[in-house]
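This protein record is not my work; I was only asked to verify it. Where you disagree with what is written, explain briefly why. This is what I was given:
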Amino acid sequence: MNPLSANLVYRIVLALVLAFVTFVPLQVTAAEASSANTDSGKPFATVWRLRGDVYATGKLGVPRKLREGGTVYVGEKVHATPNSEAVLKTGDAGIVAVRPGAEFVPERFAAEGKSSDHQILRLITGSLRVISGWISQLNRSEHRVVTPSATIGIRGTDHEPYVLPAEMADATWHQGTYDKVNRGSTLLDANGGNVAIDSGKVGFARDPRAAGGRTRGLMTLLLPVLLTKVPEFFVPGSFDQEMDRYSETVDAVSQKQLETHVGKARPPAEQKAKPVEEAAAAPETRVSEPSRPESGCSPAAIGRAWLNRFDRALEGRDIKTILDLFAPDIVAKANVRSGDGTSTLEFGRVEFVQSTLNALAGLKDYQQRRVSIDAALAEGESAKRCKRITVKSVAIEQGLMNGQPYRFEALEDYLLEQRKGEWVAVKAQTTQR
C-alpha cells in the first residue's frame, strides 16, 4: 500500500452524482425569457406545403388548423399529428419543415435585413428540417435550435434536428438530441461540451433527464458526440425532393430577397460569432513512465503515473487527454447508495469523462485524503509481458457540492492495459462505502 498525493477521488465519485434540481433553473430561465419576448405575435413564416393536420396554438391555448398560404406567428406552438407534415417558409427565405409528430415553438424571430436579425426555435419533440436563409449570414450567433438537452448553432446550413423522446428510445438510440447535417455545418453544444457536425454527419447529445431504472436523482452528462451511422428514424418527408432543390439555390435566393427587402446591397455581416467558450486547458504534463527493470515491470509506478496524468488533465480541463486515458470500449461502473439500498450504474467513456468534468464546477471547500493505493499485475500477466495491471485505492473526500455538504468514502478499481504503447483504462469501477 502506498499513499498517493494527487486528489483524484472526487472526480470519480462526484462525477457520478448530480442532483436533478441542477437543471431546473435552466427551464425557469427559458420560461421567463418567453414571457418578456418582444417578438411574440409577429409573423414568423408562411405555410408553403402541407399534408394532413398541422396545428398552431397561441397564448389562449386554442389550436387552429394550418392552411397553405396561412401564417405562423412567433410564440405559437406548432404541432403535426402523426402522418402529417408542413413546410414553412420564413421571412428570410429560409425553410422550417415540420415532420410527422413534431412539436416546436418559434421563440424569437426578426428578419429586417439588419445585423441584429435572429431566429431561435425551441424543438420540443420529433424532428424538423431547417434550411437557413439570410439570418445565418448576418447574425449566425443568434440563429439557433434549442432542445431539452442541447443547443444547435447554425452556420449556413441544411440540417435536421431530432428530439428522441423516452418512449421511442431503446438500447441502440438513446433519449436526447440528434442532428443530421445535409449541407454546411452545425455546432451541437450540451453540458459544457460541443462538437462540430459537418455535411453528411450526425451528432448526438443525451438528455440528462434520461435516468433509466435509477432509483434516485442520479445522472451523468454526456459530451456531444459524432455517430458512426445515421439512425433509421431519420426518414425523408413528402416534400424533401422539392426541398433538396431549394437547398441548392437558397443562398442566391435569400441574397436576392435580402437586397429587395432592404433596397440596397446586403449590409456588412457582423463580426464572426465568438466560438463556444471552452474551459482553458493547461499545458499537458507528460508523466514519464518508469523504465522497466530487466526482470519485469513496476505496476505501482505505472499505476501512479497513470493516475497522476489523469489528475493533471482534469485540473486543466484537458478533455482530449482524459479521453485518451480511457479505452473507447470501456464500461465504467458505480455502486452508489440510494434510498432503496445500493444502485449500480453503468456509463460509457464519454458519459464518464463529461460527468467528471461537470462535477468539478459545483465543488467548494474540497478536502480529500487517499487512504491507500495498491497495484499489481493482472491475472494471467507476467513481469516479462507486463501488458495489464490492476489498481485499487480507498479514499475519503468531503466539501460542498452545489452548496450542499457531502462526504464520501469510496473504493476505486481500475484495470489498465497497454495499447499501442500507452496505458489506458479498460475497466473502471467505484463503490461508495
Notes: The first strand starts at residue 43 and ends at 51. The two ends are 19 Å apart (CA to CA). The chain has two domains: 9-17+280-432, 37-262. DSSP finds seven helices and 23 strands in the chain.
